[in-house]
């Protein structure tokens, strides 16, 4: 019993270290990708092609004065970045990076991931509400409206996958794709998932909660130093989560020829991450009502239709 | 439990805000995200330039106007020089007039590029901003070669221009134009037909032609509403009557029309510069004008087409070496007045789209 607990603790620590490194790498990657899209070099000075830039940045932010404005709701203000970070981290406990690399295999793994990632909405609302700033409040409102709406098409778009694999466990779903990845028979679900996931992690074209040109910085406008880093990190961790989930649900997870499973998993996930970055540096941003109607009037019916067709075909084949 | 209620609130957008393009403050009365009322509050950049100019001799006036609309300093130079030349009966040599047109049109392209970049940035597309600045750079380099400075030129003078342009400048300008044309297509590929861009700009912030005229709107904004009036054609100044170019107009008067009009204007400016370079006459670039210029007593106003609209300086001269009164008709100040009416009922996200297409330049709004 105690040993089991210890093993889980060690595994969690490894997962924490992994996602921290991943988040740092993603920030560097985003800066490089955006730079090359825009004919710049991006960070070049610290380390090889700026690869150590994030270390320098993290150090700088750690040493910054931790400012808590006078009129904020103090405890909520302090708790919000903790909640966002915990929520982002919890999802990693069930993600299988390879047949052996995972912390815990839950039989409701998928539901668990969606459940804990909803906590992000809570923390953003906390941050927006407690900051006592109108821009932050607007950002918080937008974010909650957006995350809650887009969770519905996400869930419905992954239902066909659950129907096909007959499992909620992420490992079960991966293993059900031994013959072929589900993207081949569920391309519509894949695209709905990817679009809704972009909205879920607040990235362009759905980055309204932190729309700089409208809301200055949105919900995290009053945060500085380490608290800001927590939000910033959580954003990239969440981005990795949704891409990893897409890999598991539609691209066959760790499975692939020749290369080791872990490498395959990372390759697939990073291709998706690159796509998300590509979108961010290409598209303008939607307006709040357009984004909502896009979700409710297009994505949701499409996801439902896809679900219906999948069900019908499955019954007919049987 | 007390009853739930909603209330309107005020949001002070600016004077320091990433997309008010300077120090404009918009007082927004909001119901959630919907705007009930928008009041532009300006004056944060007031320097009293007009009064300062009235206390300077004529030659000292030109550097001031560089700092009004600093993105189109050449056009400002021309606008301030023309009425004084009219008062003092100065006719610049033809070569000078051609050089003026070349510079003004290049500056118009540069100004529209900054507008396009920041507008795309306001809508959340970051990359076009950097593309636009990449193309603006060679224009700045050209100005540096001809004038010596990159932003505030003080180049167009009474009786001509400050210095002649070199063959090298002509060669580089031609090279730039052929490089620049396909770049416009690149911007259009990124934005014009992009569904998200269309959603954000089509039928947003409509100004009808009648309304536009009533508000005294000018420039690309007026033409986007479908009024075909370009001062380069309507009241030709300098040598604009010698060039053929189209006047792009919109149909609806929404943000998208204002966008496409400016894009097409860049293409037309390229055409004008090409023609001016081809027809550049030989001869002097400046006639001798006394340094302590004393125009005849009288009044003069020459409206010009700046990248933002009708720009003109009204001079009253009493025959002394300083203007008795000077008044600047700043296009973006006049264009901005419609904001109050335009923004009602739209959302916060539309404020930046509408404000972006008005193309305010706070340097000339607050003088």
Automatic annotation (TrEMBL), chain A:
UniProt-listed HAMAP family: NDH1_NuoH
Membrane topology: Multi-pass membrane protein
Species assigned in the record: candidate division WOR-1 bacterium RIFCSPHIGHO2_01_FULL_53_15
Function per UniProt: NDH-1 shuttles electrons from NADH, via FMN and iron-sulfur (Fe-S) centers, to quinones in the respiratory chain. The immediate electron acceptor for the enzyme in this species is believed to be ubiquinone. Couples the redox reaction to proton translocation (for every two electrons transferred, four hydrogen ions are translocated across the cytoplasmic membrane), and thus conserves the redox energy in a proton gradient. This subunit may bind ubiquinone.
Keyword Membrane in annotation: yes
GO cellular component, one term: plasma membrane
Intracellular or extracellular location(s): Cell membrane; Membrane
Predominant location category: membrane
Subunit-structure text: NDH-1 is composed of 14 different subunits. Subunits NuoA, H, J, K, L, M, N constitute the membrane sector of the complex.
This enzyme's EC code(s): 7.1.1.-
Main EC class the enzyme belongs to: translocase
Keywords assigned by UniProt, alphabetized: Cell membrane, Membrane, NAD, Quinone, Translocase, Transmembrane, Transmembrane helix, Ubiquinone
GO biological process: aerobic respiration
Listed transmembrane segments: 6-29, 75-97, 109-129, 150-173, 179-196, 236-256, 262-282, 294-317
Family affiliation: Belongs to the complex I subunit 1 family.
Keyword check for Oxidoreductase: no
Molecular-function GO terms, alphabetical: NADH dehydrogenase activity; oxidoreductase activity, acting on NAD(P)H, quinone or similar compound as acceptor; quinone binding
Catalysed reactions, as listed in the record: a quinone + NADH + 5 H(+)(in) = a quinol + NAD(+) + 4 H(+)(out)
Protein name, UniProt field: NADH-quinone oxidoreductase subunit H
UniProtKB/TrEMBL annotation, chain B:
Mode of membrane association: Peripheral membrane protein
Molecular functions per Gene Ontology: NAD binding; NADH dehydrogenase (quinone) (non-electrogenic) activity; quinone binding
Localization per record: Cell membrane
One GO CC annotation: plasma membrane
Limits of the NADH-quinone oxidoreductase subunit D domain: 122-288, 294-367
Keyword field: Cell membrane, Membrane, NAD, Quinone, Translocase, Transport, Ubiquinone
Pfam families: Complex1_49kDa
Domain of life: Bacteria
Role played: NDH-1 shuttles electrons from NADH, via FMN and iron-sulfur (Fe-S) centers, to quinones in the respiratory chain. The immediate electron acceptor for the enzyme in this species is believed to be ubiquinone. Couples the redox reaction to proton translocation (for every two electrons transferred, four hydrogen ions are translocated across the cytoplasmic membrane), and thus conserves the redox energy in a proton gradient.
Subunit structure comment from the entry: NDH-1 is composed of 14 different subunits. Subunits NuoB, C, D, E, F, and G constitute the peripheral sector of the complex.
HAMAP family: NDH1_NuoD
Name this polypeptide is given: NADH-quinone oxidoreductase subunit D
Gene name of the record: nuoD
């Amino acid at each position: 019993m105690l040993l089991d607990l210890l093993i889980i603790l060690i595994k969690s620590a490894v997962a924490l270290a992994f996602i921290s490194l991943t988040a740092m790498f993603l920030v560097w990657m985003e800066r490089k990708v955006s730079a090359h899209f825009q004919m710049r070099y991006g960070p070049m000075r610290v380390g090889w092609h700026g690869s150590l830039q994030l270390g320098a940045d993290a150090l700088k932010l750690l040493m910054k004065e931790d400012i808590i404005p006078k009129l904020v709701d103090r405890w909520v203000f302090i708790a919000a970045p903790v909640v966002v970070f915990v929520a982002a981290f919890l999802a990693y406990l069930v993600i299988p990076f390879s047949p052996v690399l995972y912390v815990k295999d839950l039989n409701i793994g998928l539901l668990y991931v969606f459940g804990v990632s909803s906590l992000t909405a809570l923390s953003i609302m906390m941050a927006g509400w407690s900051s006592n700033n109108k821009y932050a409040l607007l950002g918080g409102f937008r974010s909650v409206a957006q995350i809650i709406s887009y969770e519905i098409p996400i869930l419905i778009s992954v239902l066909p996958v659950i129907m096909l694999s007959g499992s909620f466990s992420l490992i079960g779903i991966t293993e059900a794709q031994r013959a072929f990845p589900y993207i081949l028979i569920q391309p519509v679900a894949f695209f709905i998932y990817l679009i809704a996931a972009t909205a879920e992690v607040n990235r362009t074209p759905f980055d309204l909660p932190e729309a700089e040109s409208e809301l200055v910085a949105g919900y995290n406008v009053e945060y500085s130093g380490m608290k800001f880093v927590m939000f910033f990190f959580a954003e990239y961790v969440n981005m990795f989560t949704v891409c990893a989930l897409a890999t598991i649900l539609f691209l066959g997870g760790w499975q692939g020829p020749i290369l080791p499973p872990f490498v395959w998993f990372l390759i697939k996930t990073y291709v998706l991450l690159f796509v998300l970055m590509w979108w961010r540096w290409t598209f303008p941003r939607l307006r709040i009502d357009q984004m909502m109607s896009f979700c409710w009037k297009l994505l949701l019916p499409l996801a439902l239709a896809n679900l219906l067709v999948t069900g019908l075909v499955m019954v007919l084949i049987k | 439990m007390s009853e739930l209620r909603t209330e309107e609130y005020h949001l002070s957008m600016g004077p320091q805000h990433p997309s008010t393009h300077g120090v404009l403050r918009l007082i927004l009365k909001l119901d959630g995200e919907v705007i009930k009322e928008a009041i532009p509050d300006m004056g944060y950049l007031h320097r009293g330039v007009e009064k300062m100019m009235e206390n300077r001799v004529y030659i000292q006036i030109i550097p001031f106007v560089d700092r009004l609309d600093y993105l189109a300093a050449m056009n400002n130079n021309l606008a301030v020089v023309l009425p004084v030349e009219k008062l003092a009966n100065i006719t610049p040599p033809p070569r000078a007039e051609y050089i003026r047109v070349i510079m003004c049109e290049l500056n118009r392209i540069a100004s529209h590029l900054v507008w396009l970049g920041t507008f795309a940035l306001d809508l959340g597309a970051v990359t076009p901003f950097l593309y636009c600045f990449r193309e603006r750079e060679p224009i700045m380099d050209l100005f540096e070669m001809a004038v010596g400075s990159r932003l505030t030129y003080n180049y167009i003078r009474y009786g001509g221009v400050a210095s002649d342009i070199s063959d090298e400048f002509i060669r580089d300008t031609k090279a730039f134009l052929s490089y620049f044309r396909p770049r416009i297509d690149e911007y259009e590929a990124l934005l014009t037909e992009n569904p998200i861009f269309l959603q954000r700009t089509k039928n947003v912030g409509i100004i009808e032609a009648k309304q536009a005229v009533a508000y005294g709107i000018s420039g690309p904004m007026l033409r986007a509403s479908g009024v075909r009036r370009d001062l380069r054609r309507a009241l030709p100044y300098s040598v604009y009557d010698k060039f053929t170019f189209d006047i792009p107009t919109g149909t609806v008067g929404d943000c998208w029309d204002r966008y496409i009009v400016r894009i097409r204007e860049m293409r037309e400016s390229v055409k004008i510069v090409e023609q001016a370079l081809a027809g550049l006459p030989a001869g002097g670039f400046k006639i001798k004008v006394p340094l302590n210029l004393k125009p005849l007593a009288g009044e003069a106003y020459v409206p010009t087409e700046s990248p933002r609209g009708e720009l003109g300086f009204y001079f009253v001269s009493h025959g002394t070496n300083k203007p008795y009164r000077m008044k600047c008709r700043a296009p973006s100040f006049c264009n901005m007045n419609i904001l109050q009416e335009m923004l009602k009922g739209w959302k916060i996200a539309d404020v930046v789209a509408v404000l972006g297409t008005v193309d305010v330049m706070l340097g000339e709004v607050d003088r």
